[in-house]
Design goal:
GO terms for molecular function: 23S rRNA (guanine(1835)-N(2))-methyltransferase activity; nucleic acid binding. By secondary structure, this protein is α/β, with parallel strands linked by helices. The protein is about 30% helix and about 30% strand. It is globular, with a radius of gyration of 22 Å. The protein binds S-adenosylmethionine.
Amino acid sequence: MAADDNCFSCAFGDLTLTRASRSHSRTEQNLQAWDAADELLLAHLAEQGVADGARLLIANDAFGALVTALPTNTAIAFCSDSFLAARAARANLLANDKPDAHIAWHTSLDAPQQPLDYLLIKLPKNLSLLEDQLYRYRHLCSASTQVIAAGMVKHMSAGAFDLFEKLLGTTATSLAKKKARLIFCTPQENCRQSGSSPYPLRYAFEARNLTLSNHANVFSRASIDIGTRFFLQQLPRAEAPLHIADLGCGNGLVGLAVAQQMPQAHIDFYDESHMALASAKQNMCDHFPQRADQCQFIADDCMASANADQYDYIFCNPPFHQHNVVGGFVANQMFHDARRALKTGGEFWVVGNRHLGYHVHLKRIFGNLVQVAANEKFVVLKVKKR
Ligand SMILES: C[S@@+](CC[C@H](N)C(=O)[O-])C[C@H]1O[C@@H](n2cnc3c(N)ncnc32)[C@H](O)[C@@H]1O
């Protein structure tokens, strides 16, 4: 991507924004770190004027376009479920010589306390996350809080509108501009008091005698993914005190199954979603309270922070999209990181849809490959670090 392509001209001035990605994938490098919904929201705020000292909460700012653009004489709570989003936002503030003393950094699980003049939400694709956030933040709103959500029309569903109406107050939408739209909501006391959050969701997985707790933004939060189910049927057993990683752990089910089959294993869980890590931790504490203390729950971009040569096994059901972008670039980064983090002789086990062609990449990176199992939809592959 040329440097000019990183130039974001918005109503608060010109910025240089990147996705701060480690990926060398062309597809990902060619993607912008903002969208027309960011532009529309910032244009609306600039037109109105944001008062000195205004208290804002920004949820789901994908790469920090909002937090970097908004005036620094405000008090901003940055709330995100994504480790990658917070990393990109910090990098973009730094790259644009913006201080961050006015910003309080929160994960999606925190409960910020400051009353709000503005609640600004970039609409997530996942309505459960939106629902969780409205329950989580609505007590910070009063009738004078401006609640504004922004999204691309293609990702905006009637369900989002209904959630604002039900959980916060009277809701209206703007006209679309460049395929983006704003949602405006006026908080009302009777809505703000109604109901309570259904999250985390819990369900039983009888085949393994496990009950799983799932925060709102977790993969397969309402039922078990069929790929994961197939993966679990193939997992190896071992008695030795091995060092294992569950990479892209979601609710930690793969790691829990490993804990059942490897009674002495020490397991680390990696994910970029804070809700995933919190769910995995809860599930380990519920089912293996004595072992949970030795586990690490690591917010990371793939396994960037892992020491080299430390794991005997790494298990992974890779994501096939990130921040609304479909592509194999995250899986590919995971494969490279896993190779680095494995001990010599260690094994990397992957489940994936047959059509994703993981075998090609794995064979290129590891120089060997065994197909452990396959059905009409999925394959389980293993490779060894030599
Ligand atoms: C297909 S889900 C698998 C979840 C779980 N292992 C299972 O099988 O149910 C992929 C997981 O990768 C995580 N993920 C996506 N991008 C990531 C990244 N760059 N680094 C670490 N984890 C990531 C997602 O949050 C998600 O939990």
